[in-house]
Inverse folding.
């Protein structure tokens, strides 16, 4: 059980009630002040934030390998990490079973390393997890679509991937200081897809993919409370490696810097980018 106020996972039980050991919050009532200040009496009641489960699975690693090959997002030493290489830049259908067998062997050999990575990354994420999930809802005005997400550790990917339809992300197992940011980044993409599909008549498409890659840094690195989670990262338009993303960021940044709300920002963003999207409310 994670405390939605301070993120602690330690609890104490008094009679029939459960309390956060660190801050004393009564967890079975799960109160949370959306403004982040004020007395508990003025707080709003909400459900507990989502949980991210950290896992290791070679079938997901095969997915990461295929996706990384397709988008050129594999680590430079991926073949050394898994003990095999490919003669081409794609995984052929007839190679799938053999690749999965080799990945099983690699994960078994690196079992201790992967276990240590999972423990370290999971512990660091738990320090910010509840705060992140709650502040994302405050910033964008949408509840997380589900309470359970999975994070798979990978020996091959460079950074991270996300699979929105199945609510899971994949991150590099050797990430250290940037692990929390990469996790938050990939979870944002899942969340943003649900935001578009919830509030706009026109469903999420490839153009929204481009916008998502731009806006994620606006939200995580400039929102007053969220940026506190990543103090080592400072937002700049030079943050974007791809020219396509940088050009969109240059157009949208003035709107973001003067937005009234996230809804206001999204409506103006589509207009300035020449896209027609109809906001719906129900």
């Amino acid at each position: 059980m994670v405390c939605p106020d301070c993120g602690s996972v330690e609890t104490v039980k008094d009679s029939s009630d459960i309390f956060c050991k660190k801050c004393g919050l009564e967890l079975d009532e799960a109160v949370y002040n959306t403004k982040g200040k004020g007395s508990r009496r003025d707080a709003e009641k909400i459900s507990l934030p989502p949980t991210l489960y950290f896992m290791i699975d070679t079938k997901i690693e095969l997915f990461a390998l295929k996706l990384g090959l397709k988008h050129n997002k594999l680590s430079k030493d991926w073949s050394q990490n898994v003990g095999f290489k490919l003669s081409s830049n794609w995984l052929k259908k007839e190679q799938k079973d053999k690749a999965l067998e080799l990945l099983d062997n690699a994960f078994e050999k690196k079992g201790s390393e992967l276990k240590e990575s999972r423990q370290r990354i999971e512990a660091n994420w738990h320090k910010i997890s509840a705060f992140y999930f709650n502040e994302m809802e405050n910033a964008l005005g949408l509840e997380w679509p589900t309470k359970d997400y999975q994070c798979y550790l990978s020996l091959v990917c460079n950074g991270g991937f996300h699979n929105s339809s199945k609510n899971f992300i994949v991150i590099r197992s050797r990430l250290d200081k940037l692990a929390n940011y990469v996790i938050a980044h990939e979870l944002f993409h899942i969340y943003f897809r649900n935001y578009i599909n919830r509030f706009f008549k026109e469903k999420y498409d490839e153009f929204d993919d481009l916008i998502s890659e731009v806006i994620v840094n606006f939200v995580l690195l400039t929102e007053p409370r969220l940026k506190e989670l990543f103090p080592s990262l400072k937002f700049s338009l030079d943050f974007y490696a791809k020219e396509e993303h940088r050009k969109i960021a240059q157009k949208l940044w003035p709107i973001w810097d003067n937005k009234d709300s996230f809804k206001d920002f999204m409506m103006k963003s589509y207009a300035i980018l020449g896209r027609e999207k109809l906001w719906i409310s129900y």
Observations:
- Residues 29-46 have pLDDT under 50 and may be disordered.
- The radius of gyration is 20 Å.
